[in-house]
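okkk here we go again. third time trying to get the zinc ion bound version out, last two times i messed up the smiles copy paste (missing a bracket lol). double checked this time i swear
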Amino acid sequence: MSYRIISSFLCVSFLGICIPFADGADSAVNTKCPISGKAIKAKCAMKYEGEKIAFCCGKCFKKFKSDPATLVAKVVRDAVPVNTTCPMSGRDIKAGCVAAYKEETIGFCGGGCKKKFEADPAAMIGKVVRTSKKQD
Ligand SMILES: [Zn+2]
Ligand SMILES: [Zn+2]
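finally!!
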């Protein structure tokens, strides 16, 4: 059991019920549950390696939690980033190379830029040029 992971979310695990992040699942990197393939539920999400992964139900959430290192490979990162150019390099963003920060999904041109962003998102967020708007 990793307490690093556990401390990043709250979950009544014996019931399989997820308790939502303050900002819901709208900045999750995925729109389909990585376990079942069904549509995600806004209240069922956790942070893993800097990404917010959302699930369709508490059961899938629990399953993911039991082996995130393996199951993260099943996550399809299809959430739409707010930007189209990399905030670090200015190049076009790469599909699937995204990070969740606050209420937004930020895209990057590659893993190196994503890591740089994640090292200090509060400072780097100012470089993000938002080209797509979130739905109201
Ligand atoms: Zn499920
Ligand atoms: Zn980049």
